[in-house]
């Protein structure tokens, strides 16, 4: 699946600072993260065993305001780069290009 360019994903103010939000759109699940005005997007699929990152109740686990932690076996990734930072991951999260216009986030 790939997202059509221009697909609206969320508003910037829906993304918690030093946190993230899961958005399912167009058959693709994304992790959106934010640090200040910078928004990052990644495919919501852990590189360890390809689980979704959030818990079954929808809650996303973060650590120290810098990492997202996969609920399944504890792999952690940097919120700003998606880099594998600990646990059983071996690769980084897959980045998805986005752009921000008037406070809204779109697939680039
Ligand atoms: S699937 Fe994420 S840590 Fe195993």
What's this entry about, in short?
With 108 residues, this protein is an all-beta fold. It has strands at residues 8-11, 19-25, 28-35, 38-43, 61-63, 67-69, 76-78, 84-86, 98-101, 104-107.
Can you lay out the helices and strands and say which pair or pack?
Elements: E1 8-11, E2 19-25, E3 28-35, E4 38-43, E5 61-63, E6 67-69, E7 76-78, E8 84-86, E9 98-101, E10 104-107
Antiparallel strand pairs: 1-10, 2-3, 3-4, 5-6, 6-7, 7-8, 9-10
Description of the structure:
This protein has 108 residues and is mainly β. The chain has a single domain (8-107), classed as Rieske [2Fe-2S] iron-sulphur domain (Rieske Iron-sulfur Protein, 3-layer Sandwich). 0% of the residues lie in helices and 42% in strands. It has strands at residues 8-11, 19-25, 28-35, 38-43, 61-63, 67-69, 76-78, 84-86, 98-101, 104-107. A 4-stranded antiparallel sheet has the order 5-6-7-8, with no helix packed on it. It has a 3-stranded antiparallel sheet with strand order 1-10-9, with no helix packed on it. The two termini are 15 Å apart. FE2/S2 (inorganic) cluster binds next to loops.
Mean pLDDT across the residues is: 95
Question: What Rg, in angstroms, do the CA atoms define?
Answer: 13 Å
Bound molecules: FE2/S2 (inorganic) cluster
The total domain count is 1
Strand line-up across the major sheet: 5-6-7-8
Question: What form results from the Cα inertia axes?
Answer: globular
């Amino acid at each position: 699946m790939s997202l059509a360019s221009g697909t609206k994903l969320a508003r910037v103010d829906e993304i918690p600072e030093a946190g993230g939000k899961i958005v399912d759109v167009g058959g693709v699940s994304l992790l959106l993260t934010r640090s200040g005005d910078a928004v990052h997007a990644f495919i919501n699929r852990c590189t360890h065993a390809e689980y979704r990152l959030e818990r079954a109740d929808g809650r996303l686990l973060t650590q120290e305001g810098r990492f997202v932690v996969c609920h399944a076996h504890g792999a952690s990734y940097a919120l700003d780069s998606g880099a594998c930072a600990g646990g059983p991951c071996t690769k980084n999260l897959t980045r998805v290009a986005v752009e921000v216009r008037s406070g809204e986030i779109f697939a680039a």
